[in-house]
Amino acid sequence: MKRAVLFDLDGVLVDSRHAQLATLAGFATSALGRRVTVANLPAGAATTPREHILAELGYAGAINQDSWDAATATATLSAEVFPFVADTLAALRAADVATGIVTLRSRQRVDWLLPPAVLNLVDVVVCYEDAAPKPAPDGLLLALDKLGVSPGDAVFVGDMASDMHAARAAGVTPIGSGWGFSDPAALTRAGAAVVLPHTDDLAGTLLSLTGARRRGA
User: Fold this and answer.
1) Nearest to 156 by CA among 189, 192, 124, 130
2) For labeling, which of 52, 68, 109, 135 is most exposed (least CB within 10 Å)?
3) Distance CA 30, CA 104 (A)
């Protein structure tokens, strides 16, 4: 029986909180013609739709994609892959568990955030342009279809309520990332089957949750 672990990207595999806030601040600075720093952003900016944050800052126009990409490209230089990621992905692959990423990022921005060494350990990446965005289940179902894994044999690790809703809708077990953007209690309320408080032996925990075993165990 083939099994899979799917991951969200931001806040789960990549420590991009500051990068996301810096993108907002950089775009707002350019659009408003005045200095806007991360400290000037409203509370909850990391988990609130960007349009709402920009409106609160006084910008209600359309978001120019070229300007947003420029701000994003600069800000993502401060984003770092979490230290546990490469070893976790390698351990899952060694146990014959397929892996995938389902993200609201565009494919171009995924390449900005993840180095080739990490991307080479992931079996499938589903981006914003590939399927309807979460909380719709489409991206998860597309990833599983590409992997040849049924929803009941997969888990999805995410850090937002929309991740939990998408997993539930897809028939995939939702796993909350306690080190991500959202409060663990919010993930539980959103339907997480379990919220992992830390990343210690993450591969072993995920193998247990999928019913898989380490090779040689």
Assistant:
1) 192
2) 52
3) 24
Q: How far apart, in whole angstroms, are the C-alpha atoms of residue 93 and residue 122?
A: 9
Residues 86, 45 share a domain? no
DSSP 79-129: -EE-TTHHHHHHHHHHTTEEEEEE-SS-HHHHHHHS-HHHHTT-SEEE-TT
In a 3-state reduction of DSSP, which class is residue 89?
helix
User: How many domains would you assign to the chain?
Assistant: 2
User: Model pTM?
Assistant: 0.91
Are 166 and 137 in contact by the 8 Å Cβ rule? The answer is: yes
Q: What is the CATH number of the domain that holds 167?
A: 3.40.50.1000
Place of tokens 């991009």: 16
Residue with tokens 């359309």: 62
In angstroms, the CA 9 to CA 76 distance is 13
The count of other CB atoms within 10 Å of the CB of residue 84 is 16
Other C-beta atoms closer than 10 Å to the C-beta of 14 total 23
How do residues 120-179 score in pLDDT, each as one tens digit?
999 999 999 999 999 999 999 999 999 999 999 999 999 999 999 999 999 999 999 999
Mention every residue, 6+ apart, whose C-beta is less than 8 A from residue 27.
Answer: 54, 63, 67, 68, 71
- Within this chain, do residues 34 and 136 fall inside the same structural domain, yes or no? no
The domain of 56 spans: 17-78
Q: Which two tokens stand for residue 80?
A: 């770092």
Same domain as 163, residue 134: yes
Amino acid at the residue 199: T
Q: Is the predicted pLDDT of residue 217 greater than 60, yes or no? A: no
